[in-house]
Write the structure tokens for this entry.
Amino acid sequence: MKKKLLVVLGSTLSFLSLPISVFAQMNNNSLDYGYNRSTPSDFAATSFFALYFILMCVILGVWIAICVWVYKDAKKHNVDNPALWVLLVLLMSLPGLVLYLLLGRKK
């Protein structure tokens, strides 16, 4: 289970690194000596990078919290294989959660 969690976290962190390409393509000439002028596109790209990173961190946190809740709830309801349901929620996100709520819980 730890190996799968590391794979998921690694792939998510690589997805979070996408805004770095936006940041790297900014027109930032402030490194030139005597030239310190920023353009509106620099500000827009930096703002996009910051907002995108914050949004992805929040989504990742909610996603992990839902997976933890599914695992604990499956254990509480004596589901045969709670790790399988967590994997389903990890791979399918919201549809996986709906499937767990409809089919996975034992009454």
Summary: The CA atoms of residues 67 and 87 lie 8 Å apart.
